[in-house]
Write a structure and sequence with these properties.
alpha+beta; 16 helices; 23% strand; 8-stranded antiparallel beta sheet; 31% helix; globular; Uridine Diphospho-n-acetylenolpyruvylglucosamine Reductase, domain 3
């Protein structure tokens, strides 16, 4: 075994022991939490003085098996680190979420998605096995054949059943470039129909599609962005500098093409946090010229956002201009593809937010994941919208309205941001009975937070 792999495994084992020591150091009456400097969650949490678990030794890639096309990865390893390592072997994870600081463990316990999800499903589906520190203080290996109840319930549990310590995941070969085709639509129904065809056939006009997502700017301006891997050399675009990726896809009619390196394609959204960097002035041509490149990334924008939330800077600015405070509407929802047009029509008429991101997905197999139940063999579309609206008469008025509409159309909402469900609604939507059984078995003393308490009550 190569010395580098031995060193990585030794360091990981030491990190696990450090984690367990910190677990044992938390008083029995205190809740268990991770000590993390960063987070990709968009919901506020109650402050606590409790000491967090030391997961500092659980970063990085432990090993890559190029022949088997698998990797053993520490739970706190970011996708930025993971992709950089696997690409040395010409491989990448089956799904690479769009933001560099998302961790593999976070994408599995909190769900992740990207433009390969129409053919590769969600990140947790390519996990062959994982080691989990449970609420009982045990490190258990879970897979489709071992501790199966925990394996199935872990996705969408958000650390309330345990924390991923190590994950073994599938990888797939990757080519050095992505050839992009941007197709404009003047009708949302036409866009959704075209998306359905690509998901069903895996091709656009007879050409294989490896990546697929889309952007809606308005009811009569929307785009599908289809990518094809290629080894053919040629000029490539660069959207890490003055140019902004999402603006590059816009055109009057028909089809345009583009090319990116695979690295720049995978992180095409990170440079500007999709389009949200505009809120900080980072897309203004003058400001952008002097904006340091190292701060042109999602992690820095998230830091700015946390500062804004802490001091309510946005509301103070609105007040100076005689305007009301704003409600944050930062959500991703999964809609059945055949209801997507209906939802988009309603959303554009009801909620003053655009652009909107679209990402089609299908589960890879017939396996079911009870805490985020989706029907196998059915196509869905992840609809992402991230902005603010004027506050309403009740707290979270627009978010509540969206929750009702999503439920009416048999969709599902991700839990990384604000939620307002009652306990009964939540249990029905997010596998309440299965969750409680797993909770009782793997966290019998409730050392970890309850999922409803964490996702809705913001504890």
């Amino acid at each position: 075994m190569p010395a580098g792999v031995l060193n990585a495994r030794s360091a990981h084992a030491a990190g696990v022991q450090r984690l367990l020591r910190s677990y044992r150091g938390v008083p029995a009456t205190s809740p268990i939490r991770l000590a993390k400097r960063t987070s990709n969650l968009f919901r506020t949490r109650a402050k606590t003085g409790a000491t967090g678990l030391d997961a500092s030794g659980l970063t990085g890639v432990i090993s890559v098996d190029a022949a088997a096309q698998t990797a053993d990865v520490a739970g706190m390893c970011t996708y930025d680190e993971l992709v950089a390592e696997t690409m040395r072997s010409g491989l990448v994870p089956l799904v690479v979420p769009q933001l560099k600081t998302i961790t593999l463990g976070g994408a599995v316990t909190g769900l992740g998605i990207e433009s390969t999800s129409f053919r590769n499903g969600l990140p947790h589906e390519s996990v062959l096995e994982l080691d989990i520190l449970t609420g009982a203080g045990e490190v258990l290996t879970a897979s489709s054949s071992e501790n199966t109840e925990l394996y199935r319930a872990f996705p969408n549990s958000y650390g309330t059943l345990g924390y991923a310590v190590r994950l073994r995941i599938e990888l797939e070969p990757v080519k050095p470039f992505v050839a992009l085709t941007h197709v404009r639509f003047h009708s949302l129904a036409d866009l959704v129909a075209a998306m359905d065809g690509i998901v069903a056939t895996g091709s656009l006009d007879g050409v294989a599609v490896d990546f697929l997502d889309g952007v809606v700017f308005s009811a009569d301006e929307s785009y599908l962005c289809a990518g094809r891997q290629t080894s053919a050399p040629g000029p490539v675009s660069d959207y890490t500098g003055q140019q902004v990726y999402y603006r590059s896809i816009r055109h009057e009619r028909g089809v345009t093409t583009d090319r990116l390196t695979i690295h720049d394609y995978l992180w095409r959204w990170d440079t500007d946090w999709f389009w949200c960097s505009e809120a900080f002035g980072a897309q203004h041509p003058l400001f952008r010229r002097f904006w340091p490149a190292r701060f042109r990334r999602s992690s820095f924008y998230a830091t700015l956002m946390r500062i804004e939330q802490r001091f309510h800077l946005g509301d103070r600015i609105e007040k100076l201009h005689g305007k009301s405070p704003r409600e944050r509407v930062v959500q991703d929802v999964e809609m059945p593809l055949d209801r997507c047009t209906e939802f988009l029509d309603w959303f554009l008429e009801t909620v003053p937010i655009a652009p909107i991101w679209l990402c089609p997905l299908r589960l890879r197999a017939d396996d079911r994941w009870p805490l985020y139940p989706m029907r196998p063999r059915q196509s869905y579309v992840n609809v992402g919208f991230w902005s603010t609206v004027p506050v309403g008469q009740v707290e979270g008025e627009t978010n509540r309205l969206i929750e009702r509409k999503v439920d009416d159309l048999h969709g599902h909402k991700s839990l990384y941001s604000d939620s307002y469900y009652s306990r009964e609604e939540f249990d029905e939507l997010y596998g309440g009975d299965v969750y409680r059984a797993a909770k009782k078995r793997y966290d019998p003393d409730s050392r970890l937070l309850d999922l409803y308490s964490k996702a809705v009550q913001r504890q």
